[in-house]
Amino acid sequence: MNQNTAPAKLFFASDYMEGAHPLILQRLMETNLLHTVGYGTDEFSESARTKVRKACNAPDADVYFLVGGTQANATVIGSILRPYQGVIAAETGHVSTHEAGAIEAGGHKVITLPHKNGKLDADTIERCIQGYWDDANHEHMVMPGLVYISQPTEFGTLYSLEELTKISETCHKHDVPLYVDGARLAYGLACRQNDVMLPDLARLCDAFYIGGTKCGALFGEAVVLPRHDFIPHFFTLIKQNGALLAKGRIAGIQFETLFSEVPGSAASADSASENFPLLYEAIGQNAIDAADRIRAALVEKGYEISFECPTNQLFITVDDTQKERLEALLELSFWEKLPDGRTVLRICTSWATDSSDVDKLIEIL
Amino acid sequence: MNQNTAPAKLFFASDYMEGAHPLILQRLMETNLLHTVGYGTDEFSESARTKVRKACNAPDADVYFLVGGTQANATVIGSILRPYQGVIAAETGHVSTHEAGAIEAGGHKVITLPHKNGKLDADTIERCIQGYWDDANHEHMVMPGLVYISQPTEFGTLYSLEELTKISETCHKHDVPLYVDGARLAYGLACRQNDVMLPDLARLCDAFYIGGTKCGALFGEAVVLPRHDFIPHFFTLIKQNGALLAKGRIAGIQFETLFSEVPGSAASADSASENFPLLYEAIGQNAIDAADRIRAALVEKGYEISFECPTNQLFITVDDTQKERLEALLELSFWEKLPDGRTVLRICTSWATDSSDVDKLIEIL
Amino acid sequence: MNQNTAPAKLFFASDYMEGAHPLILQRLMETNLLHTVGYGTDEFSESARTKVRKACNAPDADVYFLVGGTQANATVIGSILRPYQGVIAAETGHVSTHEAGAIEAGGHKVITLPHKNGKLDADTIERCIQGYWDDANHEHMVMPGLVYISQPTEFGTLYSLEELTKISETCHKHDVPLYVDGARLAYGLACRQNDVMLPDLARLCDAFYIGGTKCGALFGEAVVLPRHDFIPHFFTLIKQNGALLAKGRIAGIQFETLFSEVPGSAASADSASENFPLLYEAIGQNAIDAADRIRAALVEKGYEISFECPTNQLFITVDDTQKERLEALLELSFWEKLPDGRTVLRICTSWATDSSDVDKLIEIL
Amino acid sequence: MNQNTAPAKLFFASDYMEGAHPLILQRLMETNLLHTVGYGTDEFSESARTKVRKACNAPDADVYFLVGGTQANATVIGSILRPYQGVIAAETGHVSTHEAGAIEAGGHKVITLPHKNGKLDADTIERCIQGYWDDANHEHMVMPGLVYISQPTEFGTLYSLEELTKISETCHKHDVPLYVDGARLAYGLACRQNDVMLPDLARLCDAFYIGGTKCGALFGEAVVLPRHDFIPHFFTLIKQNGALLAKGRIAGIQFETLFSEVPGSAASADSASENFPLLYEAIGQNAIDAADRIRAALVEKGYEISFECPTNQLFITVDDTQKERLEALLELSFWEKLPDGRTVLRICTSWATDSSDVDKLIEIL
Asked: Which of B353, C178, D130, D191 could form a disulfide with C171 if both were Cys (CB 3.0 to 4.6 A apart)?
């Protein structure tokens, strides 16, 4: 491969196809030769934890930095559940479909429920949990022991604060913890329609992770357990799951950078506030601004939007002619083939999306 | 923490306490904004695989880049073993002691055997395997299904080519595969006493990993399976174990750099060859050169060497007075308290060990 | 408890609420003080295996006697699947719902498919397997590695020979084995509508079990693997699953008795054949004869049949008045509450159903 | 096989080579056609639980009837341990050696400790547990979460009340539960040297099982959890482990019989008490009386006792001539071949050992 040749096509295929935000790499360079202890007990990781706790308004939270999403899900879910319990998830949930059976490999059933645009609702969850306890044979069945949702979902949709509050109340009424997968959380937080902020997640959930891999880091997900010691011996469980980084600081430095303020960033310029946004916020904002511009252009140019997605993913339904034309000029993501022969394509923006590339994309559309 | 203040003490505590070799960081910078596909199917990872295959003289090998050692061990071992099988390991093996029960969590027994300075020998392995088949009750017992050794071992010792060959023959006589954990392999390969090279490992073993985390990478271990498709569907098993990096290229770029030649390096100057050493070799050489100089100084100054270790770890037995004096000036690693009250300390060199720091250390000793 | 008092109500609640067929107990008495070796290697078990092989026309079959259905399912399924595979089952399958997550506890996903009266069809299975291979992300997903069906199903329905043949062909086209849960197989074999006999199962399936617990034994299920060594080291896997009886003969004697001929039985009297039926056949016939008489009476008396079930279970939909009246006189089984407020009740016959009790029941209806 | 032919040799090979004590079979006959509910919720099982609680002086105990020893061990141990914990056992413990890796298949390490004649001592356990907590790396290691011992042990030896009390105190000092495998408990309880009675086990242990399979039942082990709800949702865990009998009463009736008094038995005649012994006690007494007579004869005739075993197993070391002579006349059990070429043979008595057979055996010796 000749990596000096610029890619021939504009790239809007996904949000984890580049390296890391340049500020992260710069920080890794600056700190590279310092000596620290291992396994996440270093000062960078500690500083990152402090910053995450502050952003979540959760001073007692336990915060752990894991490597990837499937790993975080399997480790957290397997650590919370007791052997007789399973985890409730949407049929389309990442743990239900695209983690190669990691939850089951850990010994637990994924209890799948119907979804609406990737979302569960409180009533469906209530019926599932209450239905278990009402069933005369429930002692022969898997007990719902955790609820898993994603924010944004697999479809890029968002739970409103009202929806999330209802789900949280339903869970806790039954003493079932709630866990939120935030693989693309930066893009949810920055969305204009979003009203669920980090302190809300910390208040309403028992565990969640703040995604790094898809939000500007080389890798890494910050698992937040708002109540201290909610999962006893979680460090050992992380180790047992092969999820403990020897050089824990490499994740810590990345999250320390993501949760530091970025003076002079574009995002901050818009606000009258004297506070600069966190890098994690600025990254989300960049992707959302780009997505909003593209969405507007799509509507204007008469594209069929496959389903509403307010975050950094846009889904359009195209016929073969359109498909060929777009794919000649753009790197997009194939989503699915419809029964009528048309195709759903995904346009995805990210921290790395360049404003001038958005201009060019809009021109092409 | 004030990371601009130089550490007060000389640092010889371990080999995974800094970031990465500067050439790796540089390469991550250069490639940062290029777009690639995910999950290790990118060009950098492919190029790294090609280089690893070449270094191992194993053109058909499957090569996968995982994140850490416990993860690599659990994924490889769990993928090779059938449910009725366990893995043979030294009592002191990493999988036996310091992986929080990851192998058992995957459903398999670690069958521990006595060791000599961290090493198993072919006869002990033979007795274990043959003993299983000779036992009238063996159908009620766990079948040895894999042999796990480390090169270098937990004690920094090395298997000779003759020893490894015998172990390999013993294993294969019984149709039991052989797996080698090479977490610190660079330091073994560079050792003067070593006669086991990468092509030997590829020829004698069924699976091994080339350690990156402790040998100059930010993280990463290259799992090598010399025979193509030795583990069917290994990609899915990696995913299931939470060991699949979305941005696979981050590991790929690191190994591509580690297995590229380093023109003008110190190590190459010593050789008359026109080939420059691979970065992975240069890293090992730096640590071994430093360790050799320190070892000579220790002997000269009358220190008690706890046990012979030819690689990048040195173990000395000291009384409390010596211990206090050394620990005031140096960051070393506590190994164990002896029954006689004295202490075994470990001095560890690495890719990051500076020659002038070795001078200062020798002065202090 | 006063076990000498006859139960006040007629008992049609289930088929595993008595001890064993008297011929089984008699045989356990006769053989009680003989000494045999353990773990199913005794002569009774060997004789039982021979008789089962003969009945299945499968001279090379491996036959193992396990204790119960959940145990048999978990042991067989967990032994056939590789770690990256899951088992396809109907949403209503026993392994999907009423085994407390035993399959997942063994590390495997149950891939649930929609059913029709408890049955899967070949097209649904084909779409699931082909869909997996067609999915661009299938390497991130659980591979279908086995198909599980029940004969009779959870709803008491039966696969026809044509249906089973199609399913078998679909499975084997994709190299996916087929496993049949025969917990109530005696009642399927004896059914007039049934055209799937034991040799058909042995020819079309890769594994199945012949139920004993619900078909006249104290306990016990005969796992049949028509092709020798289809599951290597299955004995050890049985042991590991806690499914190996020390006094294996207790299961062996029961199946030896079930698969021996019963001279002078009622069933044989009907036939012109000079062969007497096997006890397993006679048991099934008794239950089916009773069920047929009850079904005819239900129809005659205008009961609403909830859904057609040709075997030993009958489902009727009743209003509260009917329900109260019946439950005052009979022990039936509550099945489910319908949205319209009515109730589905199950009437179940068995080897133990007495002809005079059927008369009384019909009178009451 | 012709089961009417008396075996040619006297049978002293094992204690699970016949059916069941005749009183058990008789009771199964008497109750055979009664209807009861399933899964151990029937009146026979309830009555058996009451009798076991009374014999253990543990009115709040949860009592469950499982099928076999490996199953009971795997289910109890896997239900008590948390994922980061392992179980301490003697190197020679049944769970360490002869259960085909069932504990590891459930995800947990067996932490093996050296033994003395099959027994652990409190100091060894203390060192293991304290050593874990003292180890600087203990968070990377498996936490001891349960202690497993057998009474009698694999070698037929017994813990004294003093020894068991010390072990119990050591465990509970560290909040580690204690579990006792009583596969041959009847033979321990009846032993003259024994001072550990059922109420002692209930007082000192957190879980134990009273063996049925080797002590006169067709099958079955009574798991006793002295403190109510010590294992939450244990019923579901039993189901998940495939250990739940549909016809639970078959186990219940056996234990109800074993824990009922036997008027007029030989054992009772010796006592001045007006209480008749429980069948479980009488069974133990028969085996111990026989073993005591055989042991005395062995000593008198100059046999070399391999090691002292006070219960129903006797171990003698013989040369090839002796071995051939004995094996021609007797069914004994091969134990092991010694380095000096001689053989250790086991003579085993049981509930089924006939007094006149003991006379004949002594004559032969």
From this structure: C178
